[in-house]
Amino acid sequence: MTTLLVVDGANVVGSVPDGWWRDRRGAAERLRDRLAEYAREHPDEDVVLVLEGRARGVEPVPGVRVEEAPGEGDDHIVAVAARAEGDCVVVTADRELRRRVQELGASYVGPRAVRGNN
Fold this sequence. Notes:
By secondary structure, the protein is an alpha/beta fold. Helices cover 40% and strands 21% of the residues. The chain contains five helices and five strands. The chain has helices spanning 9-13, 24-41, 73-83, 95-103, 112-115, and strands at 3-8, 45-51, 64-68, 88-91, 107-109. The radius of gyration is 13 Å and the shape is globular.
């Protein structure tokens, strides 16, 4: 069975102080590319990257679906998790978001699960 991996783009990008705030869209594109590598290594997972604010406008690539939150990113992530058929894992360090998706039956992992140690 395929697992839906929903990535909180703002939270994962912001988990490393590497200057992302100077170019949010570029940082989101770098994360998308890292997630494409992750998707190739984990073919049993469908990867969805949720973006908001100035990170919008990033195109999807093979292995990574990109969804732009029309409002708050967390609300959109919860909606994606609620629609999931089967297992859903949310990638975030946001405690409130973790609580919300757990109430739906989803699980969560921290940003390092997809970023590695950098």
